[in-house]
Specification:
heterodimer; A: 235 residues; alpha+beta; 6-stranded antiparallel β-sheet; two-stranded antiparallel sheet; 23% strand; elongated; B: 168 residues; Rna Polymerase Sigma Factor, Chain: A; 9 helices
Chain lengths: 235, 168
Amino acid sequence: MMEHSQYRAAIMADPHNADAELRAHREACAECRAFTEKLLKFESRLERALRVDIPPKADVLPFARKRGSAATAPRRWMALAASVLLGAAIVGGVWLSLPQPSLAAAVVAHMAGEPEAWQRTEAVAQPELADVLKDSKLRLKPDAGVVSYASSCAFRGHRVPHLVVQTAKGPVTVMVLVHEAARQVTPFDSEGYRGTIVPVPGHGSIAVLMRDSGISAAEIQRIAARVDESIVWTG
Amino acid sequence: MQRRARFQALCQSLRPDLLRFAFWLSRDRALAEDVVQESLLRAWKAQDSLLDEGAAKPWLLTIIRREYARTFERKRFATVDVDELIAKEEPMLAAAEEQDISDVRAAIMKLPDEYREPLVLQVLMGYSTAEIASELDLSTAAVLTRLFRARRQLRAACGEDTSQDPQE
């Protein structure tokens, strides 16, 4: 039997350590379970603290400016949380309408087939979520939000994770499209859905969409950036 | 041009993580921007060495670490005064919506480099212990010790109850 101090030292080094021996100790020891819960609460604070805001920037690194100019350039680190994914079209408030790339159309069409996905609010079990994500070789960071729906769906010839994440702005659907390379951020607004396709270099793209509730284009992009940041690619 | 556009898209998508990593390395936003900019220029010149685009992030983080070390060597900074750094970055530290986040940020700023860096790689970049060990050229045991100490110091600095924490 592992000692309490051994368990706590290990879990303090890696609070998300999934080692079977650690799990067994935690299940058998109420004190260490409580200790872990407190530690995970702090871990959430830690992760949020490390994610400092990065200003939106129209320029594209690394060609936007020459070395040395950074020291004098105005910096806006304190700007509201925003994403580099805000493209010029979005900043200008211009939404593209379908039909645009057929990928966006296919995503919207897929929504009609699973209306129940929006209804659920309780978190799906971790093993179920892990099972849905494993083929796409990714996991979600702990602060990704409550995932209330997770399904491995057939989409354009592949099985893809279809998730619904509960956010402060309402439920957000995320489709992880590792087989769908996108060249650029593609916002769309169609059939009662607002969303965006975001390229993920080396991992295809992700589609993020909400049922239209008056949410702004910029807000969708911020949510998409947050989703993108919540993904940890494992392969 | 297509090659350049592809590289730009890669940089765009990874920019937030790269800047955050550089910021927590240097604890100086201006320096972080310079380091990232210089690193991306180096990466552009060396992009043929990136065989798998999926591995771009760790590849770029390694370049940033080296560039930061070079910058540090070039400028031969005087001993860092953490309180000065905190004062300088006060707007950012205070930008958090919640007070508890500001407290943690200030505590992270005060962590020694050898604890802060593996912690950022683990928590923010999603690195495993083995990946951190490889990146920092440490044993996995050394990484685990540093991560343990980092959290112990942070928790204490943030007023968490550490009475149940194990002793080394």
